[in-house]
C-alpha cells in the first residue's frame, strides 16, 4: 500500500542521537498548492521524515492552501517525539 500526503518542501536541521535514541530538530514546511503526492519514498529514505510528512498532511490538509510557511520544534525520544508549532505564516493573497 502506498501512502499519500500533501506536497510540501521540508527542511530539517538539528541532531538525532541514536545512542540515547532522542532528537532535537527544527523543521520548516512550505506547503505546495498542488495535488497530493506519494510519501512512500520519504519513508524509504528516512522513516522519521516520512512519518512527519504523512502526519502533517492529515492534520494540516484544511489549512494547506492558506499557509505559506510552518515552523516546528521537534524534540524528545525517537519513539514519542514532541512536535510543537513555532510559527505559522499566512499565505499572501495575490493582488
From TrEMBL:
**Name of one Pfam family that matches:** YhdP
What InterPro entries does the entry give? YhdP, YhdP_central
Region described as Disordered: 76-95
What positions belong to coiled-coil segments? Answer: none
YhdP central domain: residues covered: 3-83
Know the name of this protein? YhdP central domain-containing protein
Which organism is the protein's source?
Answer: human gut metagenome
Amino acid at each position: 500500500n502506498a501512502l499519500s500526503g500533501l506536497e510540501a518542501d521540508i527542511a530539517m536541521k538539528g541532531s538525532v542521537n541514536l545512542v540515547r535514541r532522542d532528537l532535537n530538530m527544527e523543521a520548516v514546511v512550505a506547503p505546495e498548492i498542488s495535488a497530493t503526492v506519494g510519501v512512500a519514498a520519504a519513508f524509504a529514505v528516512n522513516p522519521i521524515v516520512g512519518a512527519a510528512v504523512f502526519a502533517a498532511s492529515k492534520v494540516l490538509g484544511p489549512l494547506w492552501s492558506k499557509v505559506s510557511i510552518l515552523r516546528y520544534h521537534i524534540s524528545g525520544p525517537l519513539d514519542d517525539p514532541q512536535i510543537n508549532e513555532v510559527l505559522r505564516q499566512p499565505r499572501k493573497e495575490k493582488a
